[in-house]
Amino acid sequence: MAIPSAALRYLGRQNSGIFSYVRLASSAATSPKDESNNIDIENAKPYDQVPEVNLGAFKNIFFMVDAIVRGTIQKPWDSMTKMRQDFGPIWKQKFGKYVMVSVADPQLFETVLRNEGKYPRRGPFEPWLAHREERNLALGVLLHEGADWHRNRTALSKRMMRPREVASYTDAVNDVITDLTNKVVRARDGHKKDNIVPDIENILFTWSLDSACAIILNKKLNLLDDKPHPEAQEFIQAVHDMFDTTLWLFFVPTRVHQKFNSWIWKKHARAWDIIYATAKKLIDEKMNDVTKRMAAGEEIDTEEADFVTYMVAQGSLEIDEIYANATELLAAAVDTTSNTFLWTLYCVAKYPHAQTALYEEIKRVVPAGETPTHEHINRMPYLKAVLRETMRLHPPVINISRIVEKEVTVAGYHMPAGTLFAGQTWLMGRDPEYFEDPLEFQPERWIRDEKEHFYGFKSLPFGYGPRMCIGKRLAELEIHLALARLCQKFILEPTTDVEAKMTTIVAPDRPLNLKFIDRTP
Q1: How do residues 21-52 score in pLDDT, each as one tens digit?
Q2: How far apart are CA 274 and CA 280, in angstroms?
């Protein structure tokens, strides 16, 4: 068989510095026509008239210091709710050197998203880009823009977004869930106090990392046994540190932090260094195996292959880009998937009516003694609704950003090309105009809504369109299967009320200390 050029380049460059910085490509794409705009740009109000939060330089610094001291910087939804009350569904505010137009109405944000263009652009992640440039690293689909983003996205989507392809990971995911279930039992029984599982947070961080390794590398690391795994724990802590420091680096330009080598930049850069170094060790092992097999003329079954094997065999990406994408996927799995599952378990435990309905559905669909599979999940609408409702109330991030490539009218205002928008998903998911009793946990609303009229823009926890989260389907598969397994075996009960806090993502503000009580047959 012919060996893709990427694999050949890997063999020849293995000891000569595997990464190279890939510069962003500009996009000259045009946006599709916006059918929802009823006001011509000529008749729209000018951009300058968009309501503005204008604190001034001194007041802005005071606001930041005050927010840091009082901790409100980690609960921005309070101030965002106030801004919405004061300004309505659209306003603009300066963050560092950027002016961001916040949109807190699903229909208005739909207008933005339908004008995102062929190559959708998100708001810049300057701290992450600065690290890649400083270390001369390639970009993956998370940070690429323009044609390079589209090429990476197309390659990854074939293996990450097609339902049939994602379903092929079921056995690998279930294998790790078995380890998770056994770990929960050992942690609970070892604690010997009211069925509480201590440190369920770290157990789930470890579960999500092991699941990601099983999918991306076809290598389960057995991280959920009772042996120490210092390198994995260092990786997990580095991901936490990376997200924590990212929030602070948005308020003062990253270049300033770099110039003065601030403690927060050093912590951020070190976190990424650990993430890349750990990922590289794992990926190298798989790369060596795949390229040797291909060099020997072995046929690679891409239908059954793990992510890295598939990418190398396809040959559509540079080796540096495969490393970058695999590293990003491993890092993203730790905090995003695990925190979403934490919120899901908390909501199921807190609302007994939902837990009872969920258990009855699982018992009805999955025969006694069988392990749930993706085929079972497809017949469990309530289970899917539980995750949807959890993510409505607790989305992974509080907003979704887009930079429009051409001028557009939003809420009657003329927005010039290059405007940075933020759809405030936290606020929109709690809007009483779109959700009856918005603060109540009611999975039933999604089943009812599907039967009547579903308007998808009112809740976008994974984003929208070609630039939605590349790991969406994998995260859903992992959480659906794990939730079904745990609810088969345990009754969940809460021991404390939990609120949200934001680092870069939305996480519980304290340990859950959930009870896992064995179900009686």
Answers
A1: 222 222 222 333 334 445 677 789 999 999 99
A2: 10
Query: pTM (2 decimals)?
Result: 0.89
d(CA 461, CA 394): 8
> Which residues, listed in sequence order, are joined to residue 420 by a DSSP beta bridge?
100, 403
Give the count of alpha carbons within 13 A of 281, CB side only. Answer: 9
Interatomic CA distance for residues 438 and 429, integer angstroms: 8
Q: CA 151, CA 306: separation in Å to the nearest integer?
A: 20
Cβ-Cβ contacts under 8 Å for 142 (sequence gap 6 or more): 125, 128, 328, 332, 470
Beta strands in 461-509 (DSSP E): 490-493, 500-502, 506-508
Q: How far apart are CA 297 and CA 453, in angstroms?
A: 53
Question: In Å, what is the CA distance from 486 to each residue of 37, 39, 177, 400?
Answer: 47, 51, 9, 31
Question: Strand, helix or coil at 428?
Answer: helix
Domains in the chain (CATH in brackets) are 5-518 (1.10.630.10)
CA atoms within 13 A on the CB side of 463: 19
